[in-house]
Amino acid sequence: MSAKLGTVLSGAFTIVATSMYLIFEEKHLQSGNCTEIKLQDPGINIIRQLIICWSFKIVAFVSSITFVISFLLLYSVYAQMLRGMVIYIIWIIFYEAVNIIIQVLTNTYSSIEMVRMMRWFGLVSRVVMHCYWMFFVITYTYMMYKSKSQGNILTYNRRTSAGSGKFLRRKSKIINFSRHYNQ
Q1: Alpha carbon of 10 to those of 37, 60, 69, 131: distances in Å?
Q2: How far, in Å, are 20, 161, 171, 172 from residue 168 at the CA level?
Q3: CB–CB of 59/25 below 8 Å?
Q4: Which tens digits make up the pLDDT trace of 58-68?
Q5: At residue 45, does pLDDT exceed 50?
Q6: How far apart are CA 83 and CA 121, in angstroms?
């Protein structure tokens, strides 16, 4: 598989995985009652409580940005833009860090043990797959960077002579003459 194809598949994987994550987590993150959390643990930190209470809104916001950045990655591969690929690399690291923090903070308030295990399995498998696809994105970004930097150097140093136009016309006359001669 080429680095370009891997980068395109990375963007497609991120779109599909984020959609599945939102569908699965919607019920589990929205079902948390903030007053219930405060009653269970009266010594809870105010920042932790805000993150737990707003967890689905945070996940939905970060996921919507992830959709936009994933489409930006796909466009960047098509248009050969480095900036979009670099933004994607940085964003996926931030996106997964936010999801790990939310998973850790909301894990204790999930009542069913099997649901907790499924949420952790989904998170870990998605992080591992993002790490796998990130190698392709980084490789393709590096290849694009190298080709653009070499391309700029080559075009900068190239010199054209004033007589090159005469030579091309003379060469085409020779080719035309040889065709007539062979017929």
Answers
A1: 37, 20, 12, 10
A2: 60, 12, 5, 6
A3: yes
A4: 889 999 999 99
A5: yes
A6: 32
